[in-house]
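Summary of Year 1 activities. Much of the first year was spent building the evaluation harness for sequence design. The harness presents a backbone, in tokenized form, and records the residue chosen at every position. We chose the following record to illustrate the format because it has been used consistently in internal testing since the harness was completed.
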């Protein structure tokens, strides 16, 4: 038994020495011309290079994720800043567009040619009626500018109304859609006359006594030249209508002026209506002999 164990030890020792000899021989062949430190570095690199590659492969996504979180916070902040900038630019653009619209409207008003022997004063609307019935506008010109009660007020689209109250530097204008306002008109296509009454926020009401020619959608109504200068556009017929037997003609008409978008107006100076009574300062009286209730 003892000799067998001794043989095994000898064999193991022999094999170990043989392996070491082979390794030394390999190192000796591959290290010709190199120092011992070079060999150690190469060996260390051979051992640790796979480990470093593995560590890099594992940690790279983690580092990228952390960098991504940092970049995400920056991008969110940058996005908010750019959104604020866009909103500010949109507000500025809206202001510019509103200013352009005001300039265009003012140019149109300034370009109006008043009727012969009349002059005009351009005024800005600075307030509406404070009541539930929006039939009044307040302008920034008054008696110091030649404004007096009864003067016609127009826009580039047509008749607006009449001055009903004047202060030194402001005036009140009653719109033609005021239910107390009546305006003598002529159908431009046929030459027949009648008058329109204000109906509040709805269309104007055209009334023509007796047998009349029918009116058609789009027919323009202009002033006749009594309490307002002649040939100012007042409204247009909104639907076809014809007169009934012994009842005259009644039709709806849309005002030519868009009151909701009105910012500037022109007051006609020097117009002397044929007849102005105290009641006419608000509305014109319908022609005599035509009971309003019969229409």
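For this record, the design step produced the sequence shown next.
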């Amino acid at each position: 038994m003892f000799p067998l164990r001794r043989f095994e030890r000898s064999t193991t020792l022999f094999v170990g020495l043989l392996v070491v000899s082979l390794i030394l021989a390999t190192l000796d062949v591959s290290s010709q011309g190199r120092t011992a430190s070079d060999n150690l570095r190469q060996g260390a690199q051979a051992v640790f290079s796979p480990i470093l590659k593995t560590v890099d492969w594992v940690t790279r996504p983690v580092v990228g994720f952390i960098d991504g979180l940092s970049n995400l916070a920056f991008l969110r902040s940058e996005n908010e800043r750019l959104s604020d900038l866009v909103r500010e630019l949109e507000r500025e653009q809206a202001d510019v567009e509103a200013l352009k619209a005001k300039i265009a409207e003012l140019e149109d008003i300034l370009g109006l040619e008043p009727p012969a022997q009349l002059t005009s004063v351009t005024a800005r609307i600075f307030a509406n009626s404070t009541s539930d019935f929006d039939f009044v506008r307040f302008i920034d010109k008054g008696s110091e500018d030649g404004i007096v009660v009864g003067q016609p007020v127009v826009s580039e689209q047509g008749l607006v109304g009449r001055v009903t109250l004047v202060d030194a530097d402001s005036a009140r204008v009653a719109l033609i859609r005021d239910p107390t306002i009546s305006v003598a008109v002529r159908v431009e296509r046929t030459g027949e006359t009648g008058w329109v009454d204000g109906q509040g926020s709805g269309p104007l009401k055209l009334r023509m006594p007796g047998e009349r020619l029918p009116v058609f959608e789009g027919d323009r109504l202009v002033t006749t030249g009594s309490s307002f200068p002649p040939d100012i556009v007042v409204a247009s017929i909104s639907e076809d209508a014809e007169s009934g037997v012994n009842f005259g003609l009644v039709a709806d008409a849309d005002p030519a002026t868009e009151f909701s978008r009105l910012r500037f107006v022109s007051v006609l100076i020097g117009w002397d209506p044929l007849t102005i009574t105290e009641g006419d300062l608000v509305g014109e009286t319908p022609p005599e002999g035509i009971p309003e209730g019969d229409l």
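The domain at 118-285 is CATH 2.40.10.340 (Thrombin, subunit H). Quantitative recovery figures across the full test set are reported in Table 2.
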